[in-house]
Amino acid sequence: MLLQIPFSYVMGYIIDFYNEILDFQINFLPLKFLVLAAAILCTALAAYVVVTMDLVPNPSDGVVRALSYAGHLELGKAKFRFDCTMVAVTAVISLAVGHRIIGIGIGTVLSALFIGRMIQVFSRRMDSCLKEIVEESKGVYNFIV
């Protein structure tokens, strides 16, 4: 799990790089929701694949994986509960400190509500396939080592 630290820095640089390249504004509201829906799908798929294939997760997905394991919950349910809790904690802190909700918009709320649910969908559809890939890769790794 110590790999999370360097991978976090690398991912931060990659995100900054793409933020520079994809610097555009969308002013058409239906298109904003379409892009948000695509982002939620991509984020859910990436989180599901990273955690299921036992790759190096980002810190929040590592916490979700630990909560899922400790609480005997499906990954999607743990992600849903974690995200909603984080949004609620952020709202309480921002109300306490700033006397208004700061940093939580409709995209944040929709992401919290739907990423975990989409992970559940991916899990139902892809679990056996990904677990088979993981088992095969462990066999290849043991053979090489």
UniProtKB/TrEMBL annotation:
Top-rank taxon: Bacteria
InterPro entries recorded: YczE/YyaS-like
Entry keyword set: Membrane, Transmembrane, Transmembrane helix
Pfam families: DUF6198
Chain segments annotated as transmembrane: 33-51, 87-116
Listed name of the protein: Uncharacterized protein
Protein source organism: Candidatus Blautia faecavium
